[in-house]
Fold:
Amino acid sequence: MEEITVRTEDLSVKETLECGQVFRYFKSGKGYTVISLNKCAYLYEENGFTHILSNDINYFYNYFDLGRDYSKIKQDIKSFNIEYLDKSVEASKGLRLLRQDPVETAFSFIISQNNNIKRIQNSINKICENCGEKLEFLNETYYAFPSVETLADKSVEFYKSLGLGYRNEYILRFAKLLSGGFDFNSLCNFSTPQIEKELLKIHGIGKKVADCITLFGFYKYDSFPVDTWIEKLYLENLGGTEKDRKKISEELVSKFKELSGFVQQYLFYYKRSLSK
DNA sequence: CCCCAGGAGAGTC
DNA sequence: GACTCTCATGGG
Structure:
């Protein structure tokens, strides 16, 4: 087991894991276990420091993007002088955007549509428990995210039995597309609009899910996913006038550019935390 | 029992 | 191009 220690002000476990960008984490003891593909890490905070424990610590150094300086990002965001945005940043100063696996991210956000976060987590966990490799980590059992071949080998009825609802067909078709040889990961070499154009060709992926995949799976920060929460705060708290979600997204990206993804997460997390 | 959830596809005009 | 309807299912 290897360990990395960083200042909690640079990595808040709760803010980073519960801000809606990732679904595969579990509270345990005084911290959280997070699973990405078939890798596990345990995180906890103590005396102003955040500890990350893993057998594959280099993977999680990249996963938590620890080489990135967030003080610069927060400073640049502050220069926009938007009160609600400043409050949002102030409320989650230790939030970081993760560098998640593109394929796992895509499946996760296909499931996310017209769904709530609790049920998204349950659905993904069921898929992993039924199809994924068994993992032992710190005396607990977890399950890896399955291979696309395993997922493609199942039936629509199987996914329906897991409670995926009408998304069952989207999942199966996407799994078959990837297992058929579609090189999904190589999309990362394209620009954000080019990736989005390719994603929109996939059945079950629309504008919002595509934006989540470019942001969370391909680390393209000129993406601004607009869901029901962002739409609400855009109208209620940012003085926005646009009604169409696609146009709202375009307006926000043209304003925040390469900071869009970060701004989006601060706002989303803050708005949701207030309504609970 | 109701409305809602990190929406998207298909149909209509 | 713009509405509108429908799609499962559990959370609150």
About this structure: The CA atoms of residues 72 and 141 of chain A lie 39 Å apart. Strands of chain A lie at 2-7, 25-28, 31-36, 39-46, 49-54, 134-137, 140-143. Residues 20-21, 109, 112-120, 166, 170, 203-209, 212, 225-230, 245, 268, 272 of chain A lie near DNA strand B (CB under 10 Å from a C1').
